[in-house]
Amino acid sequence: MTQQSQEMQAAPADNTPEATEDKAPKKLLDVKDLTSSYGRIQALKGVSLHVNVGEIVTLVGGNGAGKTTLLRSISGVQPITGGSITFRDEDISNVPAHKRVPNGIGQSPEGRQIFGPLSIEDNLMLGAYTRKDDLIDFDLDRVYKMFPVLKERRKTAAGGLSGGQQQMLAIGRALMARPRLLLLDEPSMGLAPILVDQILEAIASLQKEAVTVFLVEQNAFAALSIADRGYVIETGKITATGKAKDLMEDDAVREAYLGV
């Protein structure tokens, strides 16, 4: 197979905004009135939001606002107590987590959660565990091009990577599942500013490869700077939504999350 034909196969036709039959954006993810609890503590209180095909959408909020709980609910790890989650026009509210990955949902979790004793390449290949197609090597090369340092050290133990490099590995592992929707949980957490810029640049580049991204971040300025749209969550409720540039200019958002 030639490089050109591989690249044409690499991005499914229905994974781009232009692939829709009309001009209206096509929803890839639609969350409605979602609730979830930890015992008696209700973490999500009727959350509704959507992510269109080809978008980068961010969810910003403080610690304990419900950001990670929402991502865990979408990926199927956290049980929901009410509402619905629709993905690719299918209600997946009761679909187990292990079946959501081959259906097209990939996640880079908070805290990276890499396998330290395994090599970098073994960590990446675990991301492709559910796949049976012939493009795994192509996608591995794509990850290495996105994060060259991972290729340079691919045979070394992942536990020896710096925090920023571990974050690159976590994102790369999620991409190896070839997701239609990539969930990113606090990818800038604990990183130096220069590494944050590198990670954000990599996330922004995914849009050119027809990967839809739902980005959860406490660093509101960083997230909104690369997003198309955004949501603000406070104590389990969505309190604001709009185009990313409009949220960056909103006085309440600027005061609460942008430090201005």
Outline the structure in words.
- With 260 residues, this protein is α/β, with parallel strands linked by helices.
- The protein is built from eleven helices and ten strands.
- The chain has helices spanning 3-10, 67-75, 97-103, 120-126, 136-146, 148-152, 163-175, 193-206, 220-226, 244-249, 251-258, and strands at residues 27-38, 41-52, 56-60, 82-87, 90-91, 105-108, 181-185, 212-217, 229-234, 237-243.
- Strands 6-7-8-3-9-10 form a six-stranded mixed sheet, sandwiched between helices. The chain has a four-stranded antiparallel sheet with strand order 2-1-4-5, covered by helices on one side.
- 37% of the residues lie in helices and 25% in strands.
- It has a domain at 25-118 and 178-258: P-loop containing nucleotide triphosphate hydrolases (Rossmann fold), CATH 3.40.50.300.
- The radius of gyration is 18 Å and the shape is globular.
- Enumerate how many helices there are, as a single number: 11
Separation of the first and last Cα atoms: 53 Å
CATH H-level name of the domain at 25-118 and 178-258... which superfamily? P-loop containing nucleotide triphosphate hydrolases
Strand order of the largest sheet: 6-7-8-3-9-10
Overall shape: it is globular
Describe the largest sheet: 6 strands, mixed
CATH A-level architecture of the domain at 25-118 and 178-258: 3-Layer(aba) Sandwich
* Percent of residues in β-strands: 25-35%
Give me the strand/helix succession: HEEEHEEHEHHHHEHEHEEHH
Structural class: alpha/beta
Give unreliable regions as ranges.
1-21
Mean pLDDT: 89
DSSP helix fraction? 25-40%
C-alpha Rg (nearest Å): 18 Å
The CATH topology of the domain at 25-118 and 178-258 is: Rossmann fold
Regarding CATH, which class of the domain at 25-118 and 178-258?
Alpha Beta
Number of strands: 10
